[in-house]
Amino acid sequence: MDISLIIVSFNTRDVLRESLQSVNREQGELRLEIFVVDNNSRDGSVEMVESEFPDVHVMRSEVNLGFGAANNVALAAAKGRYIVLLNSDAFLCDGALSLSIQHMDAQPEVGLAGGRLVGRDHSWQPSARMFPSILSDFKVLTGLAARFPKSRFFGSFDRTWADPMQPAEVDWVPGAYSIIRAEALHKVGFFDPDFFLYSEEVDLCRRIQNAGYKIMYWPDIVVIHIGGESSRQIKTLEMSSAGAQLVRWRMRSTLLYYRKHHGMAAWLAKIQELALYHLTVLRNSLSGDPSRKERASRNRNLARLMHQAWEDTNGGRVSPPRPWKFE
Q1: Which backbone phi and psi does 110 adopt, to 5 degrees?
Q2: Residue 324 has pLDDT above 90, yes or no
Q3: Spatial contact of 120 and 22, defined as CB atoms under 8 Å apart
Q4: What rounded mean pLDDT belongs to the chain?
Q5: Could you tell me which residues are beta bridge partners of residue 8?
Q6: Taking Cα atoms as reference points, which of 273, 255, 252, 86 lies closest to residue 178?
Q7: Is there a contact between 56 and 125 (Cβ–Cβ < 8 Å)?
């Protein structure tokens, strides 16, 4: 088997159909097995796959396992020499699978690689990143990274300074699309299930890199990813219960990642975020401008969520029981 392709789905029936159609178009002569792991969807996703894509192996979960643990279910059954992870809201463009195989076969030192992620309008999305650090978090949280994207210093995390058309060795690539050498995965283990959502692919890339493999970005592999467009809406939801919970989950995973790989840096990550939120509150709370008052209120809420995330994870030491829930 050339490729074991895995898609995790949670209430994404319509885009899941489009994603599977793109896989069928790109299969060509490749020997391919396809897994859909369904995280207890209630929108008819499973029924759609079973009726329209009978060759796909559907694995149902009675609970939402999250991204990493759901992938692990299929990884345990995968027989391909390469594993391809594809988001249910991501669609393969011409040659994506064949080019991925060609590159991996030509470079056996590469353990995991990703391609160029674009929106439906082919607008750029972050596709090749460097490992997070307290300094890079500061540049992102303060807006300096967005303000100076062409600076190698300020734009380091998302490599916004780099030519996106040039291949590069990087630290990690987003989980919307990646190809993994099965040999490397078996050496380092599957996804860490402590990461329910966010940071799981960062952790896996770090472990693969620590095992002596390279992580590569190849821009000739193009994948349309609409998640970049939908995730931007989270900013408008932060004061709602669903949006606040997503932010809290991001904070939990940040603390878990720092504690696992950098020990006391988890505490520094917490203190830094809280300091920036409180400074923003101080700057804006006394203003009569309604937009600035709203900004102050939003940052008070973010500080509250960080305190909750710290308690949820015991300072990044433990992951709350799965499935994480919207409260």
Answers
A1: -90, 125
A2: no
A3: no
A4: 93
A5: 37
A6: 86
A7: no
Enumerate residues 6+ apart whose C-beta is below 8 A from 173. 112, 113, 114, 127, 128, 129, 201, 205, 215, 217
DSSP conformation letters of 200-260: HHHHHHHHHHHTT-EEEEEEEEEEEETHHHHHTTHHHHTTSHHHHHHHHHHHHHHHHHHHH
Distance separating alpha carbons of residues 307 and 326, to the nearest angstrom = 17
pTM: 0.92
Cα 187 to chain centroid distance, Å, stands at 22
The pLDDT > 90 percentage for the chain reads: 86
Question: How does strand 214-225 pair with strand 168-170?
Answer: antiparallel
pLDDT of residue 326: 61
Q: Which residues pair with 195 in a beta bridge?
A: none
Contact 6, 74 (CB under 8 A): yes
Q: Which of the 8 DSSP states describes residue 174?
A: -
Our measurement of the distance from residue 294's CA atom to the centroid of its chain's CA atoms, rounded to an integer in Å, reads 29
Two tokens, residue 206: 């770090």
